[in-house]
Amino acid sequence: MLNAVKNLLTRRQIIGSGMGILGVGVAGVVTRNSPAIAQPAYKPAKEPPIPDEKKLGWAVVGLGKFATQQIIPSFSQCKQSKLVALVSGDRAKAENYARQYNVNPKNIYNYENYDSLRNNPEVDIIYIVLPNGLHAEYTIRGAQAGKHILCEKPMANTVEECQAMIAACNQANRKLMIAYRAQYEPFNLEAIAIAQKKQLGQLKAIVADHGRNLDPKDPADVWRMNKKLAGGGSLFDIGIYSLQAARYITGEEPTEVCAMTYSTPNDPRFKEVEENVNFILRFPSGVLANCTSSYGYSSTKRFQVFGSNGTLELDPATDYYRHQLTVKREKVQEERQIQEQNQFALEMDHLSESVMQDRQPKTPGEEGLQDVRLMLAIYEAARTGRTISVDSRE
Amino acid sequence: MLNAVKNLLTRRQIIGSGMGILGVGVAGVVTRNSPAIAQPAYKPAKEPPIPDEKKLGWAVVGLGKFATQQIIPSFSQCKQSKLVALVSGDRAKAENYARQYNVNPKNIYNYENYDSLRNNPEVDIIYIVLPNGLHAEYTIRGAQAGKHILCEKPMANTVEECQAMIAACNQANRKLMIAYRAQYEPFNLEAIAIAQKKQLGQLKAIVADHGRNLDPKDPADVWRMNKKLAGGGSLFDIGIYSLQAARYITGEEPTEVCAMTYSTPNDPRFKEVEENVNFILRFPSGVLANCTSSYGYSSTKRFQVFGSNGTLELDPATDYYRHQLTVKREKVQEERQIQEQNQFALEMDHLSESVMQDRQPKTPGEEGLQDVRLMLAIYEAARTGRTISVDSRE
Questions:
Q1: Residues A115 and A128 in one domain
Q2: Closest residue in chain A to residue B213, using alpha carbons only
Q3: Where does the record place a coiled coil (chains A, B) (predicted)?
């Protein structure tokens, strides 16, 4: 343990100092002032895992269904990340998971003593898996405690919150990454490559649909009916995957959006947040993307890309596993065989690697801010019945 | 031949007189003033074909690819319709097809002597398979020649033309039907039944996509690049299938539309007509439909329906054959086994039957007018960047 702490301290001093010491950090990776001027495309580490004591230590904040069923079990697949701390308002629950995942009970925190993580050198990175309305507070407090942050999507409820989160992490010289797992998931990466390498010819349209039935009896869904905690309805929760797909498939930022929303009257789930949002995005290259988002239809997580020479469909596109990628060209339909991988592990390792290499993660705070800005524009377009111009990132 | 003519004359006198003679017409079907007050859903005739001399006689106007490769060969599958005349500007071509399909050469017409069809009692119904910009003229002249009309979609280029066509047919007391083949095609009928019988629960969204690469070297496509002949671009030609699907699946009329269009700059195909149109329709029950239409992407003819308890996908949905209907409920995916049928024959027989029974066809002129009205509203929404309210049929 002592060695691990020492290693981490050394690593933090070298990499996280912001002083740009030239040299080679842990695991042979190069630190900030190396010759890497243009940041190459991210490749998931293909090497074997680094020794456990050199992995970066992660604290998971919030022990809801997603954290306990997807995130925490995925550390076992990580090559550069390890779970070392838990933050929860429920001590007994945290102790239970700590036992199960071999987390030292002294590394269990609650929301009051969360800031004292600053005194725990085992923790390098905090993963915020809280309701959206709490993302800003816990990101800012985490950065001020000297930790790098992975924050669940959507980044926050407002542009101002996003900006404050980015500013806090910059000021603390900590990395901020938004947990856009699809951008680390191999089937999605293959779809992006196919589209951007023009294997479908010139891209013309994208159709992306994400829906599920919000379950008012599921504790993981209860807070999503609360506007203050959720920020928005289906759009903020899952429509964001449709929006993301359109953005990462084109590799462009939309310039215009029009939209309509609908919520079933008298459905108690939709007193505060919306049920359905349909929207169209215009991209600079001319691609028009039709997206749907719903809390009212049965499970749907798919997108389709239409090009001049072919189409691809990823269905499911943004599930946890069992993705299916079909490419159709010249009437020949082919199902792509791709090695399924744990996208949560890839995602977390990306941030660990970004910290170790002192590089901007692929999905930084600015990526999350852009989606929040766009989602608010989508709401505005629906509310006003007008096509809204959206500037690219400021 | 004489007997056939006699039969037709008798039938026309009874059924087409508009005088509502109570009684039983040919083939045992009931004429207008029978007790059938509410018009039941159309069922394709399951009986064997009626004797050839009792079938209604059809003239096909325009001998392009669609007419010669799809329509004309389909008469052999008809039970109540027979091909008896051809109208073409190319006499040699017409003679060739007349020989092939056993049409009496005296029943070959051109666009100048077209009106003399009035003197040919063998012809009951005229099928207009001309460029869109000629639909109004040839429908009106055909009705004035005393014939019933099946007119290809889109009905015409403007609302005014559609209204004039309806008025001309009313005045001549002739039936007017628009050739919306998908509304007679068994897979589409099954999809409609599944949706409207609530087998997917409450409908939430429809996604309908129709695209193909317009081929400037294909004579069948050349006139489609001409605004005056085509009326519009991809929307008028194939986006109309997306629009239709949204309407017939819901069984409702949209109340609002928003849209965006895009045409590749400097693409010679899109000097006069648009390439891509994406639009959203709002229906009274709350269903929001996302539709695409393109002359720039590889062949796509599909729609998907999202309900609270399941989804269905028809892909291809509006091809000539080999449709595929997939229904997914509670994670169980099922491909529906449906007997493929010749939709052109069903469609033509529907009009023959409607004429014989003196009933309004299922897709009358008003149906075509509604689509033209909606398509023009879609263009307006795209042009103005505003959500356009569309009144239901006047």
A1: yes
A2: A308
A3: none
